[in-house]
Predict the 3D structure of the following.
Amino acid sequence: MTSCFLNSQSSLTGESGVTEKTADIKEDQSTPLLDLKNICFMGTSVVSGSGTGLIVSTGSKTYMSTMFSNIGKQKPTDYFEKGVRRISYVLIAVMLVVVTAIILTCYFTSYDLSQSILFGISVACALTPQMLPLIVNTSLAKGALAMARDRCIIKSLTAIRDMGSMDILCIDKTGTLTMNRAIMVNYLDSWGLPKEKVLRFAFLNAYFKTEQKYPLDDAILAYVYTNGYRFQPSKWKKIDEIPFDFVRRRVSVILETESLERFVVTKGALEEIINLCSFIDHIDQDAVTNFSLEYQQRILNMGEELSYEGLRVIGVAIKRLQGKTSEGSMDGDEAIESEMIFLGVITFFDPPKDSAKQALWRLAEKGVKAKVLTGDSLSLAVKVCQEVGIRTTHVITGPDLELLDNDLFHQTVKSATVLARLTPTQKLRVVQSLQNVGNHVVGFLGDGINDSLALDAANVGISVDSGVSVAKDFADIILLEKDLNVLVAGVERGRVTFANTMKYIKLSVIANVGSVLSILVATLFLRYEPLTPKQLITQNFLYNLGQIAIPWDKVEEDYVKTPQSFSKKGLPMFILWNAPVCTLCDLITLLFAYFYYRDFTSEGVRFFHSAWFTEGLLMQTLIIHLIRTEKIPFIQEVASWPVVCSTIIISAIGIAIPYTPIGKVMDFVHLPFSYYGFLVVLFIGYFTFGQVVKRIYILIYKKWL
């Protein structure tokens, strides 16, 4: 390789700078892979220089290929789907036992096998939460439409639900927390004091430079114009320009004053500018002295301190040209850019977005902790994090992480808030550590090739429209604008979606289980079916129809303040506590209808069918109001109007059916007013007793939904 072979590894590291590569070096085995100066990687790009290299790995053995070989192999477990599957197995087991018992009971009572099997199948249908796919997908689609209005593209609907469970958000700093543009901060002389002379010549360089305009030039011009400086560039004339390149890392312009004096004005990387200078300007004393090694070291130290504060530093130097050499007859570039006078430095900063601090604060309020995983330098990452309010008491770099054993690695990842100079595989390992060891639901926001592994492994992968194609391919959500406030709204909608889904799952399971157990007891007690198959199917259909409004229900504010996740033990315990309450009410109805009316004729059987149908449908319809809130229903908390309307309509249909032609077809009879009076007392008692059970359950388990 040549001595100035510059290579950009931004696709792997995320750092925008370039790395000098050389063959004349022997690296230590402890040197991090991407810090090796004698190795070039497939997927990176040559910025400048040339050289001859020896290929040591190709195809699947390259770093890029081995990195992407992990894609899709470490997807996190979807605890919600796993929990629903487990509950489904439980319901199937209950179904097999209860339905078998009901079929046998009906058969030995009526000796009609076909009718018994038909009734058993009807009970199995009643036990199945048929609306679960519709409720879940409607809730997710509703959330996706809402996020689309916030300029988000939802590639995976389940990502919305996962956002509600997310408790850690890992962020790649570049362009996410910051504006991804430079603003000028200060102009300092060699002693760190603001001097207008430094700014004036930096401005003249940026103003007259015509080739390859860079954001730093725009930042200098914007600073001068907005702060009211009058440097009168009209009194200067441009003679020539030596453009910027990545080998020299500087740009020079040759200017002429009205008095025909000519100056070379150079700005660029601080180290390069220092190497060009033989003199230093004491601006306060209006004197120029030799540029001693002591001065050079002090300025380099000052540059390091400024860099540690997260600032980008460039040097500024000038040189007075002797004589009036005509344009085009000057000496070579090296001669012109030599023995210059060092003036000072200009500092720049990529400012954090105005919305970033507020958004991170709002996420923290909702229980979502932010961690910065970046390929940038630690000093720059710390500076930005301090600006946006992320704690920087625990920070670490990728090379330091590599030195830790597994236990210490997991412990460090758990406590660290800023992890800098990470390679793509290190980002992946950090995300997996948070998921598998910390049991966190992790979101990752990134837009580069170096973020792809982490995006694929995260529970919620988030990229931006300006990101590279591979990052967008692996992301679940694509932001059309780099605004974290959109994620706050997404977290809220995810929790609303999760809450409404859990409402349906819990109410349907306890209502169905309670109802089926009641049917089993009633069948054993009465020696005949409490409902005919067509009555049971109709009741189940009307009940399911009434639950369609659940995705439009509102959620209590306290619920969206904390991450929500599916509990393996939570649902079984919820069923054990609440299903017996439903069964108890059904059995009270059974005893009341049997002993109060004491009609044991065939007409009495029809009466019992009508009474059981009405009570069961009202019970299953009203239960949503008890389940949906921790508070007292109808008094402290009222459901959304779609849910209330749905309850009223289905209840009205259930009460009216026995009095309609449909009721005659269903073999119903008219119910006496005394029975409706009983139902009023029954449901007041149900809500009262159910609320007591709810408070005891919350007191023990600290959670309701």
Notes: Residues 522 and 590 are 7 Å apart (CA to CA). Residues 325-330 have pLDDT under 50 and may be disordered. The two ends are 65 Å apart (CA to CA).
